[in-house]
Structure formats: C-alpha cells, structure tokens
Specification:
By secondary structure, the protein is mostly helical. 70% of the residues lie in helices and 0% in strands. It is built from eleven helices and no strands. The chain is globular.
C-alpha cells in the first residue's frame, strides 16, 4: 500500500502543481508505474475546475465562471498538456522529416502553428462547455479530465516512445506501460461518467478513441511512435471531443 501511495504521489507531483510530501521525487521507477493513476489525477484536476466553477457561478455569469474554471485547471497542471498540444502543432505543422519534427517539438519557443492551435482549442473547449446544461458542467469537467487522460494512456500503450536518446524526466512515464496499468487507468477514467446517471454518455468514448486513432496514425507515419508531447495532444483533443460528444448525445437522449 505504501508503494502505491508513493506511485500515486509521483504522478500527482509530475502532472500537477499540487503540493506533495517531501519524500516524493521524480524516481524513474515510480514514474514508470504512475501511468495507472493518470486518470485519478484527472479526477482531482477536474474536481478543482468543477469546484471553482460552482463557487464562481454563485457570484458571476456562466461565461466568467467557465473561464475561471479553465484558468484553475491550467494553473493546477502548469499547462502541462496544453504545452504538449502546442508543441505537436508546431512540430507537425512546420516539420517535414522525423528529425525536424522532433527538434521543433523539443524547442521551448512557441511558434505560429502552436499559438493558433492552442487558441482555437481553448476557444472550442470554452464554447462547448458553454453549450452544456450548467447543472452538469461540474460533472462534465471531472469526466472530461479523467477520460481524456485514460485515452492518453492508451496511446502510450499502443505506440512506442521514439526519443531513445532523450534524458527528459517525462521519458519513464511515456514508456514501459503494461495492459494492467491501462485497465486501472480506464477504471478511474470511467468512474465519473456514472455521475451523469445516463448510460448513453458512455458512447462519448467512441469519438474520443477515434480522435486518438487519428492522431496516432499521424504520429506513427511521421515520427514512428509517440513522445510525451504527443500524449499531451491526445489528452487535450479527446477532452474537447468529450464535451462536443456530450452536447451531441444530449440532443438525442
């Protein structure tokens, strides 16, 4: 049990800014096993966003409350996944060879493709959440963050890590993931969906996974696998797809 707690805190420390015990560090051994708790971290991040939205909605409009909620989750994660999405936009938008794409994604500077892609992604996310019944927005936030992280773990499982000479701290988390870890992540990822009390919402998993397959095909074609940035891009895209799917399903269920 103590080991599992350590692994969970390792995931929490790596993917968020939430304070963790001093005895937790970026130990590659624990970081490699932390993928099983990615979705659980998503539940916590989504819950923070849901709480900020609920409290803000008591004082402000739905629009302002949503923006504050998005700010809270981005701050909590340090824009970790948003940065990955932007890097992928820059890399695949400006690179035409594997080496060039990987080099651009490694660059800490944000380019035109990344800037435009990230702005559009956040705009769609905001507008999609705005379309959801306000009573269900907190649940949607929690489920969106947890399910999207589960989808990201499936990319790590199905696609090999391509930066063999990379000394990044993210490398252990993006490699050596087992099926059992994916299953555990899936259990945590799916749990919040039950809060909708509507089984049809589970259908949103289909377009979410399709979005992962779409990106996965591009990743495989151009760089031969995935990197941490690729997983971040999958998380961001599938989260938005979940909100859009929820809107679509709500019109017919």
């Amino acid at each position: 049990m103590k080991k599992e707690i350590h692994i969970f805190f390792t995931a929490l420390m790596f993917f968020t800014r939430i304070p963790c015990p001093k005895w937790v560090n970026h130990d590659p051994t624990y970081l490699r096993l932390s993928a099983k708790y990615f979705s659980l971290v998503g539940i916590l991040v989504g819950s923070i966003g849901a709480f900020v939205f609920y409290v803000s909605s008591l004082l402000f409009s739905i629009e302002i409350s949503l923006l504050l909620s998005m700010v809270s989750t981005i701050y909590t994660t340090g824009a970790f996944h948003e940065d990955g999405f932007a890097d992928v936009c820059d890399g695949f938008g400006g690179g035409w060879t594997k080496d060039k794409i990987l080099l651009i994604m490694k660059d800490s500077r944000l380019g035109t493709f990344g800037s435009v892609g990230l702005m559009l992604l956040l705009a769609i996310k905001f507008m999609a959440l705005l379309e959801i019944n306000p009573d269900y927005i907190p649940i949607a936030l929690i489920a969106g963050h947890s399910l999207s992280r589960f989808i990201a773990t499936t990319l790590i499982y199905t696609h090999s890590y391509v930066r063999e000479n990379d000394d990044s701290k993210a490398k252990p988390a993006a490699k050596h993931i087992s099926l059992s870890m994916v299953i555990i992540s899936g259990i945590f990822g799916i749990l919040p969906v039950f809060l909708f009390q509507n089984p049809w919402i589970f259908l949103a998993l289909i377009p979410m996974y399709i979005s992962k397959v779409f990106l996965g095909v591009k990743f495989k074609k151009w760089i031969g696998g995935q990197t941490g940035d690729c997983a971040g891009a999958v998380q961001q895209l599938s989260e938005v797809v979940f909100y859009l799917s929820t809107i679509g399903l709500w019109k017919y269920i």
